Amino acid sequence: MELPRRTRGDELLKPGELTRLRERLRSSARTHDLTTVIACAFDHRTRMLPFIFADTRMIPAGVRAVGSAMVDAGFDKTRIVLQQWNRNFRPSRMQLDGRTPDLFMASSMSLHAESCLALIRDANRIDPAQRPLIIAGGPHAVYEPYDLFSADPARPGGADVVVTGEEFVLLSLVEAVLSMRRRGESMRAAFIRARDGGALDGVPGLVYARGGKDGLAEELVDTGIQRLVGDLDELPHPVLGYRLLEPPGRHANLGMRAMPADQVHRRSPLASLVLTFGCKFACPYCPIPAYNQRQYRVKSGERIADEMFRLNKEYGLRRFFGADDNFFNDKTRTLEIVETLARAEFDGVKLRDRARWYTEVTVHDTLQMREHLPLMRKSGCRALWLGVEDLTATLVKKGQSADKTSEAFRALRAAGISPMPMMMHHDTQPLYSRGSNYGLLNQIELLRRAGAVSMQVLMLTPAVGSKLLESTYTSGQVLGSAGGKAVRPYMCDGNYVVASNHARPWKKQLTMLAGYLYFYNPVWLVVALIRSRTRVALMPAGLQVFGMMGLVMTIVRTSGWAARLMFGRITRQLRAPASRIPMRGVGGVPASHDTSVAQVAEVRPPRSRQAARAA
Ligand code: B12
Ligand code: SF4
Questions:
Q1: Contact 337, 301 (CB under 8 A)
Q2: Measured at the alpha carbon of residue 395, what is the angle toward residues 390 and 401, in degrees to the nearest 5?
Q3: What is the DSSP letter of 231?
Q4: 580 CB burial (10 A radius; 0-12, 13-18, 19+)
Q5: What does pTM read for this prediction?
Q6: Measured from the CB, is residue 362 less than 6 Å from ligand 2?
Q7: Residue 599: pLDDT over 60
Q8: Alpha-carbon gap, residue 29 to 72, rounded angstroms
Q9: How does DSSP classify residue 81?
Q10: Beta bridge partners of 99
């Protein structure tokens, strides 16, 4: 099931609404000396191709954005801990500014959900008199907020509240709790009064538990789908978040100080930046258009240039990765950004001489932008990741074909931009096909000849929040276990075959490995070195080296699963994930995030308590 959309015309915040909230909080922050720890959950079992390097050497934008929002609102006693760098961190041991923090926040993708739940459970071990208010957020919270609560007496301890939205929702929650907070009272106690008094019900984008004792939830209240900030220039500046990082280490507790600014670029040579959000396509396996409520949101070129410049100046960051769903989505707005970046100059130095950037686009829109690709290069862009999925458009039809894809790749290479294809393997695709482009190796070879610089091959895996999710389960495609090993969240990244109707699913697992081996190997490394005098220079050779290293990790991690698929008994899951705890919306409407009930397409929760009572 896709996330429901708010009533048409009510998807976005009013212009200036986020800015005004930030200002209001800043003026009240002085009277609340809050300390906050934000943890980014990361399951190290997920380390392999094609995300190796980007997973630990690029600080995730989500926690950094939340940290920036807190500092911007006046709460600078904030620390960000990445499990990527601090595996042993235990929230139950954390102290910041000499005390247990007022707020503990955990962010997670679904893939890292087990690590996130372990963090939250550990935070629940803190003595109730000092226990921070526990807030969960991030992509897993957006799609499956119910998973972050506990109704299991054997494993108590969930979040107090889950934010199913972005900065505006979090800051509105903080404002609502602070407005109820008495002098010297803990944030958790103030939260409980705010919750029980209905003060949270007018903040769309929250899920909180009611009636639970000892960390057990009996019912979840869902305040509905968030309103999105339309003008991304209203977001707090990312420069604030980089000051808050816990340095890498092996301790369970926190260090005295955050990482010094001059070490940031060494630990995180890639900096992710929000440039745009949204995509006009509607691929049935993708949750992105629904999450964005079919809106396309952008930052201005001036703001992006300023972010790159300040991040370079303050932290030495030079390489930026756009957190875009489809950067070329709207040609006019793309050109506005790119033209500004190409001419931006600070302190007499051209930005493009300091900053290189990369992002995600589609093949279709790359062709629409063909004549502007030299401008893209001039603006500092050096690589683009393209969702090719399946060249023959048998699996997915979004205007791609072998000819169009080759044409787009050649145009990119001619402009000096590295094309990075993302392929999707599926049940009906063979390893090799004679006389057609259907086979995986045929497609990889075609892309390599057209100039592909890296390769991503992932198995089509059901994504929560996508149209295809339920039918993939009810059709019996989703595996429950193989050879006695259950499918766990960390395996749902497309690297493991966890959904297949193929008679021999192990073949799918080995086909993906064969595809990677075909692309990443010493032969192509040598060829890339010999051909290094092209406009993309040594990038293909460098990525061959990373690719081979990542492939070793992929083989080590996934071959055991291939063996289980080959020799073990396979069980299936027939029901899509859903809340085990009863969920309700505010004012008699169904809970927007309850996947167990049929949803109406548009759910509009009441704006206020009065409205809720009236409803
Ligand atoms: C860049 C990116 C990556 C990079 C990440 C590198 C890095 N270290 O940052 C790479 C390429 C490695 C990657 C890999 C994968 N990705 Co990815 N990726 C993205 C992408 C395009 C941008 C992420 C980003 O920076 N967003 C910008 C930030 C600001 O947004 P955000 O993280 O959502 O955070 C906001 C809110 O969620 C909230 N929030 C976040 N944390 C918290 C915490 C609290 C307490 C609160 C209150 C709020 C809050 O506030 C933030 C500010 O608005 C997103 C799609 C998107 N546009 O977001 C997908 C996305 C995050 N990826 C996704 C997936 C599935 C994957 C993969 C599993 C691959 C796959 N099969 O598609 C792998 C996993 C790799 C791994 N081992 O972790 C999914 C996650 C879905 C889910 N349910 O978890 C997303 C959402 C795309 C989608 N399909 O919808 N990805
Ligand atoms: S083109 Fe990409 S981002 Fe857009 S809907 Fe399809 S898969 Fe999702």
A1: yes
A2: 45
A3: B
A4: middle
A5: 0.96
A6: yes
A7: no
A8: 10
A9: E
A10: 96
